[in-house]
Model the fold of this input.
Amino acid sequence: MGDTINEEEALSTGTATPPEPLLRELEKLTTRYPTKRGALLLMLNRIQEWRGWIAPDDMRLCGELTGISAAEVWSVVSFYTMYRTRPGARFPIGVCRNIACWVQGSERVTAALAEKLGCAPGSSSADGKFSLQEVECLGSCGSGPCLEIDSRYFENVDPAKARRIVDALAQADGDPVRALEDAARAVR
Done:
């Protein structure tokens, strides 16, 4: 067992430093807004796309680039449901449980997903590919029930659509963005 770790381990532990092209992109984002802090959400999105989650070192980096404290960055990361602060499933599924989605059947969607994935809300599937969580309002009240999967919304979801989405994602190889596009086509 050597002293070095591979790239996958470095990403999963949060010790990997963003590659130089990504660092340049993050720095450039700060020039697009009247104040540097305006770029924070886009920076966090790009880091999460790269790492799969946002590590404490990533929050410090974003703070340095935007001129705000890591604590302020944490307050943003912890507020939004789209950001993950630890490694997890490749496809985190958030089911809105707020009142508008609830009256339209989000509980049935959650139950169907829990059965399909073999895991309760707050946990992950046995293969580690999916996690299931009930989340607060996703702001899609007129088109509920709503799911959020890796920052992509699926609206007007019923239990059958939820199962088709999972089936499409389960068959995905490689590019997660393409997998989400395939899942969206599966429920049109």
Notes: The chain is about 50% helix and 10% strand. Residues 1-5 have pLDDT under 50 and may be disordered. Residues 67 and 148 are 30 Å apart (CA to CA). The longest strand covers residues 91-96.
